Amino acid sequence: MPPSDTELALLKLFWQSGPMSAREVQDALPAELDWAASTTRTVLERMRAKGLISRRSVHGMAVYAPAQDKVSVLGAALKRMMRGVLEIDAALPAAAFSGSKLLSEDELKALETLLNAQDVPGEGQ
Fold first, then answer.
1. Among 6, 64, 75, 87, which is most exposed with the fewest C-beta within 10 angstroms?
2. Strand partners of residue 21
3. How many CB atoms lie within 10 A of CB 103?
4. Inside any domain, residue 125
5. Strand, coil or helix: 73
6. In 3D, which of 1, 27, 101 has the Cα closest to residue 35?
7. Last residue of a domain, one of 66, 81, 107
8. Gene3D superfamilies, from UniProt (predicted)?
9. Whole-angstrom Cα distance, residue 115 to residue 91?
10. Distance of alpha carbon 99 from its chain centroid, rounded?
11. CA-CA distance, 110 to 97, in Å (whole number)?
């Protein structure tokens, strides 16, 4: 199941900061996500159930981290939008995202490869 806009916002926090506890996520939330701590924990657990993040114990504290790399997550979302919604059949250049502060040059190359890979029959995109 693809991540929602809210889940993507939280994944972005992880991609920028690395693994975090629920408290650290709560402290790093963007202003538009002014949640109670219990809501943050609920969203994190739902994301874990969806396979978007993983949880491990560090010195008795739950620490969350992305379960997939950002290129895979972003590539699947972009491909779904461009191919499925906009019905673009031409090559999809990742150069359109070259101004991104979130993606390195290597990640842009990997994203372009992923965007233009042939879909495997039977895989849901």
1. 87
2. 63
3. 19
4. no
5. helix
6. 27
7. 66
8. Winged helix-like DNA-binding domain superfamily/Winged helix DNA-binding domain
9. 8
10. 18
11. 12
